[in-house]
Amino acid sequence: MGPFGQSAFALKISVLLLLLTVLHGCGSAPGLPPGRVAFPDEQPAGEAMTETASDFIGQEQEALDPAAPPQFAAVEEALARHDWLTAKSALDALLAAMKPAALASDAAPLVDAQSFTRERIQSVGESTQASILDSPAFSKKTPALEEQAPKDQEILASDNLPYEDAGINAWFEYFNVLIHWERGRVDDYDRDRVRLASLPTPKAIRYRLALKELEVASLADDSERALAAIIELQRFSVLGNDPGKLSSMFWEHLQRLNEEELETARRALPQQQAWIDLALLSRIEHPQDVLANLETWIIQYGDHTALPLAEALRTATLEDASIERVAILAPISGPLERAGAAVSDGVFSEFYREQSSSQIPRRDRATTAASIVNMNILLIDTGRLERIEDAYGEAKAWEADLIVGPLEKRRVEQVFEFQPETPLITLNRRERSSADQVSDVLQLSLAPEDEASQLAEAAFADGLRRVVLLRPEGEWGDRMEGALVSRWNTLGGSVASAGVYGAMSSYSEVLRSTLNLDTSTERNRSVRRLFSSAVEVQDRRRKDLDGIFMICRNAEEARALKPLIDYHFAGDLPVYAVSTADTRSKDPNANRDLNGVRLLTMPWRVDGGDFEPPSGDLGSTLSPLFALGADAYRLSRRYHRSQASLLPFYSGQTAELRTTENGNLKRRLILAEFDRGVLRRR
Questions:
Q1: DSSP 334
Q2: Are 401 and 385 in contact (CB under 8 A)?
Q3: What is the rounded distance in angstroms from the CA atom of residue 440 to the CA atom of residue 457?
């Protein structure tokens, strides 16, 4: 993180500290973060949270009913469908309906349904009209609005809304904030949300704003913002909520901060020091170092509410320390030899790095075993074996404590069929997803579907709502489009058109059709036919778009498509791509055709550090597999700690990895952008 990044994070932490001070009252201590995640044989999460939430906020939780006033039902229903236009129409109609006819005068004693301007709601759907007309605001004689509001609501002063009930005014402003978000007006959302949150508003609105902020922060990969939202949510006791879930989310987002950010937070939030120290030591790789730091933590914070988590971490770390023999199952011969070599080189690179060697020794691939200090590695060539059971048998005969592999998807499926007894980290994910967790198996992979879903979230967080999609023909393109569009539609986005390209000669034609340039060309021809003299006209693309999803199998496709997008009058639209579009080259000249492309990439591409894949061909096309091998080795050193209930997040070289309940390691990459040929974090 550069100086600017450090100062930006310090500012965020300062704002968070200010928020804590405001929330907890002048002179009161902010208390401790949420208690802990649930562990076996502990009391139910709800009971544990009842105690720790009070400690966390420094006061009793505030009970509330988060429901909005009934007259806003039509607005809520439309927003639930991501239909901001109907929501805005319903809100405008409600605004008109609630204005007394004699608004210009000082008197507004009663709201009379006959005085409403009903023409304002004729443009919305019948169900929306019925919901508005049946609401209490349209009753024959409805008391003035201040009499409808709950007596304990706090008052929001407003210069813009002409109602006597300022609590109702706050609800109008709240729903306007949500409409900004649904429309993709991210700056307007941030501005009006901050303004509304800074004023005394009804508790239900404060709760709802924090809930929305948590959603937005998660989409934007902003853990500092998410932590602030969770802190606010912890203040409220809402019927039907699972308080233990918030506690787990707080701990997970704390893990996502890097060491510099945690150190900054530690200085800014001294009363959260125990939790931050626990997060810091959870990032340590070597089990013996973790154990030593855990003992110090327990001595220092022995009566802290995070003690059960620290003790569970100590137990898991002791199990990790007992792992001394790791077998690697990879194809180092046969058709997948180069892929297997990249993975095994990544494993041995991290293996030797851990030994603090100044130079990685040259390893003869004929040598399949290595041993330094308390770790032994056996490399088993699956390329020479017909059945994966045979490779597994060799690992068991060697008395392996943990197995990494296999790499091939079909062999991963075979592993799940015979239920291995030895702890296992696979290097691919099974084809058929299963909700049932297989004991002692973590599935690490480079599944592109994870990237497709994340790309949809990143673009939505940036304010895109209506897009076109470009993708290659074939099964890979089908899967990527399915994963991306499914997530995009769930978020509330829409795909105006999808272009499927084949050979490079088809790129321009597909783009013209996708951008509606064919229609524009035909329209221009019609205009020319109306005049006898020459008429200068220009094709125009469709103007209802916010951006483009460019799904490419490789960098060659991306470098051919992006200049064509610019040429076809769409250079002003942001273009989003998955990591396969990356050249993985540090030469700006090789990347100049990709300038402006926003793509997901692996951390080592933008953060660098001391991690560097081999140069040449291996450093480009196979570097993701080298990083996969490196992550596999590092995960083998923290296998038991990486379970979903303990330390589900791990910052690897392939991505930020999160362990799910069924043992999948979901990847979350970094959003970056090519700028003058250089890939930079966004």
A1: S
A2: no
A3: 31
597, 577 Cβ separation under 8 angstroms: yes
Looking at the chain, the number of H-run helices and the number of E-run strands are 26, 20
Helix or strand (DSSP H, E) at 264: helix 259-268
Place of tokens 């720790």: 52
Condensed to tens digits (0 to 9), the pLDDT of residues 151-189 reads 333 333 333 444 445 588 899 999 999 999 999 999 999
Alpha helices in 376-474 (DSSP H): 388-397, 409-418, 448-461
Q: What is the pTM of this model?
A: 0.80
Say how many C-beta atoms besides its own lie within 10 A of residue 233's C-beta: 23
What's the pLDDT score for residue 433? Answer: 57
Name the more confident of 508 and 354: 508
pLDDT reading at 23 higher than 50: no
pLDDT at 372: 52
Q: Which two tokens stand for residue 472?
A: 């290659």
Q: Give 273's contacts (C-beta < 8 A, 6+ positions apart).
A: 266
d(CA 325, CA 466): 52
Neighbours of 258 (CB within 10 A): 15
DSSP lists the bridge partners of residue 658 as: 649, 666
| Separation CA 563–CA 58 (nearest Å) | 57
The structure tokens listed for 182 are 């649904």
Exposure of 518 in the CB half-sphere (CA atoms within 13 A)? 7
* DSSP track, 593-653: GGTTEEEEE-HHHHT-TT----STTTTTTSHHHHHHHHHHHHHHTTTGGGSTTT--EEE-S
Most confident of 58-62, 472-476, 520-524: 472-476
Distance CA 475, CA 488 (A): 20
